[in-house]
Design goal:
The complex is a heterodimer of chains A (259) and B (298).
Chain A lengths: L1 E10 L3 E11 L4 E5 L6 H9 L7 E10 L2 E2 L5 H6 L2 E4 L11 H8 L10 H6 L1 H5 L10 H13 L5 E5 L7 H16 L3 E6 L2 H7 L2 E6 L2 E7 H6 L1 H6 L27
Parallel strand pairs in A: 3-8, 3-9, 6-7, 7-8
Antiparallel strand pairs in A: 1-2, 1-4, 4-5, 9-10
Helix pairs in contact in A: 3-6
Chain B lengths: L1 H31 L6 H19 L3 H24 L7 H23 L14 E4 L2 E4 H23 L1 H11 L1 H6 L4 H23 L12 H4 L1 H8 L4 H25 L11 H12 L14
Antiparallel strand pairs in B: 1-2
Helix pairs in contact in B: 1-5, 1-8, 1-10, 1-11, 2-3, 2-4, 2-8, 3-8, 5-6, 5-8, 6-8, 10-11, 10-12
The chains are: A alpha/beta (259), B mainly alpha (298).
C-alpha cells in the first residue's frame, strides 16, 4: 500500500538526513520503524505527510507512492484527505480547545461524517472528558486524544510517532493494546518507536534506521531473535540474560552491520 | 440623568464600531501572529465602496453595505494570498512591515478615489433622532449598535460552531499540528484576512453614517482600536468586544463631563483617554483583560 523508494531528504539545502531509504507498509499490517535519536525517524514521517517544508526540508531524490499514486509532492492536506493520518511526536494536541473540538478538527478533511463514536468506543476516558480543555488532560489521555484525533480522519494508514514517549509502563501497554485494536479494525499502522520491545511485540515487520539508512529489514520474529538487535535495542546480553547498566560498554563490540 | 444616558448611548455606538475594528486586528493576529497595520486603509477603502454603490450608482444603502463588505473580504483575501503568503515561516516582524507599506499604498489609492470632499455614505438616517423620555438618540447610532451586534454574533457563531472557525482556531494554536490533521493552513490565513477586511469595511461605513461622513482623515479612527485590542488582550475575541465598548463609553463620558468638571485638562482630552486606560490596565494585567496565558499542565 505505502511504498517508499530511495528517499533522500535534505534540510536547509545542506544537511542530508535520509540517504536512500526504502520501506513498505502492506495493507492492514503493523510495521515498526526503529532507531536511536537523530536517526531520521521523524523526518521519514514528515516526508510521507508533506510537512517537510515547514522545517525547510525537501525530498531531493526518490519517491513515495500510496496505492500506486505518487504523493511525495502533494500538500499535507491532500495527503490526509487521501487516507494517511499521523500522530505527531509529543502529542501536539490543541491545548486550548476542548477534547471534542480537537476531535472535530481531526475530521476536517470530511472523509467521515464527523461522528465521534469510534473514538469514544476506543477511548472511553475521552468520552467522560469531552468538554475539558485538552491542555489539562494527563499525558496518557493526551496521547489517546492525539490518536483519536488522527482516527477522526478515517485513515487507511496511521502513522504513529513515539506513542510511548514519556508514558508510564502501564500506559504504554494500554496504548499498545489500542494500536492492535485499531489495526484489527482495518487500519494499517506504521509505528515509529524507540521502545523496540513494545513495537516488535505487535508489529509483523520491522525496519531499523540508523543515521539515515535502513540497516536491518526483517520480520518482527527475526528481529527479536537477531543477536545485534538484542544487544543494541532490546537490552539482552549476548549469551542471554538482561544486562546491567554498569557493564554497558558500547565500544566493546562493533555493530556488525556497520562494517 | 438625560445627559448621562445620552453620553452612554453615543458611547455604546462608538464602542461597537471600535469592537468591530478591534475584531479585525484580533482575527488576523490570532490566525497568523501578525499585527496588521493595514486595517485603517482597509476600513476606508471598504467604506468607499458603500459610498460608490449607494451614492454614485444609487443602489439601496444596505445592498451597498453588503457589497462593500464582500469587496473588503476579497481585498483582504488577495492581500494575504499575494503579499503575505510568501512570508509564512519568516519572522512575523517582516509581515508587519508589509502591512504598514500596504496601508500607505492602499490609502493613497483610496484618497484618489475619494477626492478631497466629505462623502456621505448614503445611509437612510441622515440627522433623524429618536426621542426616548427626553434622551435624544440619533437613528444612525441605533442602526450602528444593532448592525454591529448582528455582525459580531454571526462572527461568533462562525467561530464557535462551523468547521472553518474551528480549523482557524486550531491553525492559530499549532500550525504544523493543524497541517497534520489535513487543515489547509494557508487557506485559513486567507479566510482570516477576508473576515478582517469585511469587518473593516462595515466599521468604516458605520462610523460615517448619520451626521459624520467619509473623508481622507477617517482612517485615523481605526488606530484608536489599538488601545482597545491591547486593553482586551491581543488574541481575545471577547476582549475586543468588551474593550471596544469600554473604550467607546469612557471616551464619550469624558467628552461629556470633562469640559465642565475639569476644564484645565484642555480640549480634546477624550481622545487621550483610551491610551490612559490602556496603560493603567497593562500595569495591572499585562496580558490585557482577557488575553490568554499559555495553557500548561502543572
Amino acid at each position: 500500500m505505502l511504498d517508499v523508494r530511495n528517499l533522500e531528504v535534505v534540510y536547509e539545502d545542506v544537511i542530508l538526513v535520509l540517504k536512500g531509504l526504502s520501506l513498505q507498509v502492506p495493507d492492514g499490517d503493523i510495521v515498526a520503524l526503529l532507531g536511536p535519536n537523530g536517526a531520521g525517524k521523524t523526518t521519514v514521517l514528515r516526508a510521507l505527510t508533506g510537512l517537510l517544508d515547514v522545517h525547510h526540508g525537501e525530498i531531493t531524490r526518490g519517491e513515495v507512492t500510496f496505492d500506486g499514486e505518487r504523493i511525495s509532492d502533494r500538500e499535507a492536506h491532500h495527503i490526509v484527505a487521501g487516507g494517511i493520518a499521523q500522530v505527531m511526536e509529543g502529542r501536539r494536541v490543541f491545548a486550548e480547545l476542548t477534547v471534542e473540538e480537537n476531535l472535530r478538527a481531526g475530521a476536517y478533511t470530511g472523509r467521515t461524517d464527523g461522528s465521534t463514536d469510534r473514538v469514544f468506543d476506543l477511548f472511553p476516558v475521552l468520552a467522560d472528558r469531552r468538554k475539558s480543555t485538552a491542555g489539562y488532560l494527563s499525558g496518557g489521555e493526551q496521547q489517546m486524544l492525539a490518536i483519536g484525533r488522527a482516527l477522526m480522519a478515517d485513515p487507511r494508514l496511521l502513522l504513529l510517532d513515539e506513542p510511548s514517549l514519556g508514558l508510564a509502563p502501564q500506559l504504554v501497554e494500554q496504548i499498545r493494546d489500542l494500536i492492535v485494536e485499531i489495526n484489527a479494525q482495518g487500519t494499517a499502522v506504521l509505528l515509529v518507536e524507540q521502545n523496540a520491545a513494545m513495537a516488535l511485540s505487535i508489529a509483523s515487520h520491522g525496519y531499523v534506521l540508523e543515521t539515515g539508512k535502513i540497516v536491518l529489514d526483517k520480520s518482527a520474529e527475526e528481529l527479536l531473535a537477531d543477536e545485534d538487535m538484542q544487544e543494541f535495542y532490546l537490552g539482552v546480553q549476548a549469551g542471554g540474560g538482561r544486562r546491567s547498566f554498569r557493564d554497558v560498554k558500547h565500544y566493546r563490540r562493533r555493530k556488525r552491520w556497520l562494517s | 440623568m438625560t445627559f448621562f444616558l445620552q453620553a452612554l448611548s453615543s458611547g455604546l455606538a462608538l464602542g461597537t464600531v471600535y469592537a468591530l475594528l478591534a475584531l479585525g486586528f484580533v482575527i488576523i493576529y490570532r490566525a497568523t501572529d501578525v499585527l496588521s497595520f493595514s486595517q485603517p486603509a482597509l476600513m476606508v477603502f471598504g467604506a468607499y465602496w458603500t459610498v460608490y454603490f449607494a451614492t454614485v450608482i444609487g443602489w439601496n444603502f444596505w445592498v451597498a453595505l453588503v457589497l462593500a463588505a464582500v469587496i473588503g473580504a476579497a481585498v483582504g483575501w488577495l492581500v494575504e494570498r499575494v503579499l503575505l503568503r510568501p512570508l509564512v515561516g519568516r519572522p512575523p516582524f517582516s509581515a508587519v512591515m508589509v502591512t504598514i507599506g500596504l496601508d500607505i499604498v492602499l490609502r493613497v489609492i483610496t484618497d484618489d478615489l475619494l477626492g478631497i470632499s466629505q462623502r456621505t455614505v448614503g445611509d437612510p438616517f441622515g440627522l433623524q433622532v429618536v426621542n426616548w423620555g427626553g434622551v435624544t438618540i440619533p437613528r444612525s447610532n441605533i442602526a450602528t449598535v444593532l448592525g454591529a451586534i448582528l455582525v459580531i454574533s454571526l462572527l461568533l457563531v462562525f467561530y464557535r460552531t462551523t468547521k472553518f472557525g474551528l480549523a482557524m482556531r486550531a491553525a492559530a494554536f499549532d500550525q504544523e499540528a493543524a497541517m497534520a490533521q489535513g487543515i489547509p493552513v494557508g487557506r485559513m490565513y486567507g479566510l482570516a484576512w477576508a473576515l478582517a477586511g469585511s469587518m473593516a469595511a462595515i466599521a468604516g461605513t458605520f462610523i460615517s453614517m448619520g451626521n459624520s461622513s467619509l473623508s481622507r482623515s477617517t482612517w485615523v479612527f481605526a488606530l484608536r482600536a489599538l488601545p482597545v485590542i491591547v486593553l482586551g488582550g491581543l488574541d481575545s475575541i471577547r476582549g475586543a468586544i468588551v474593550g471596544g465598548l469600554l473604550i467607546g463609553v469612557i471616551e464619550r463620558m469624558v467628552g461629556a463631563y470633562q469640559p465642565g468638571t475639569a476644564p484645565w485638562l484642555g480640549a480634546g482630552f477624550e481622545q487621550v483617554v483610551p491610551y490612559i486606560v490602556m496603560v493603567i490596565v497593562l500595569l495591572v494585567k499585562p496580558y490585557g483583560l482577557f488575553g490568554t496565558r499559555e495553557v500548561t499542565r502543572v
